[in-house]
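Appendix C. Worked example: Glycosyl transferase group 1
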Amino acid sequence: MPEPVLVIVKYCDPSTGGEGVAYRFCRYMQSRGVPFQLVCGRNKDPHGPLAEHVVELGMLRPTRLLKYASFFRRAERYIACTRGVPFSFEYVRGAAIVRQTGVHAIFLRRSLEGLPEKEKRRKMRSRWWNLYNRYVPAQERRVLDSAELQRILVPSGMTRDEVCQSYPQHCHKVTVIHNGVDTERFHPADEAARAAARERYWPGAGARRIVGFAGNIFMRKGLAHCIGSLRGLPEDVVLLVAGGDNAAPYRQQAAALGVEHRVRFAGAVADMPQFFHALDAFCLPTRYDPFGLVIAEAVAAGVPVVTSHLAGSAEIVQDGVTGAVCRSLDDSAVAQAVDKALRLDRSGIAASAPDERDMFARYLALADNVRAARRPVRP
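Step 2, the predicted output written as structure tokens:
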């Protein structure tokens, strides 16, 4: 039997971010009879379909730094004495493959760009005093300098450039694989389903054109520009916001601009496919995002998209065909991009979305290559 793939992730959790990708990668391997283990700090799905494959190492509490650092150390000890191909979604030294979603020092800097000077200084002070932001760059370097590391997996060319800029000695190890979408969940809707979704999220929308935004960090993801762009768009264009962040400052912004009647906050949305079905366009003018899976999900749902050149997912947007890419982040530029997206033909958009199954097949091919390279050559 071939060596199992040891998927390393903080939480066994099907519902969130990188953890969700790791979980679905394991499900992909399970469906194909590939041996694997999911090595985690905490199992949030103890009775799920992966239960017999999960190795729960535990983590210390209460702070984020203590939880993550303790899990990383435990995972390092585990893979050092366990047969398999370590495929880590975390900063775990000794892994053969590490999925790197960005360089932490670059994230800290670029995520502040465009903020008002007072807010930028406040965040810089807060981050400087946060021990987690000192630990992560050191651990990141420790992991990438590991002799065991063979491949660095990144979700975008933008992230590849960051890694190569910060760690030029490891640039030859970098492989770009765009994040894929579960196209069985995210796909275009028929007219009846679209009408039902519009009625749910904007009752009585009628002929209004609904532009969507989704994210849990409103400031970095560019919600203020989405709201500001409404002043440069016709009155029938409205904004539907999904996400669990604090909406109060953005309600105030909308009121100050006189567009409060054109903005609706839906809160955290569980059924994102239906959310996309309600939309005529989707807008995420982010200040910084190594990829931005929500853009790929919108494309898979057949929705024209707007994003910024500071998102890795801009690489999958065909400007003027499947959406528009903002080269500058201001309300006027976002308004022009939204207007452009609203005029596009939706019929072929979904076909350009990266499929999650293709992504996982490439993940597995990387693991196979590592396994093959380890195999001793017979005389």
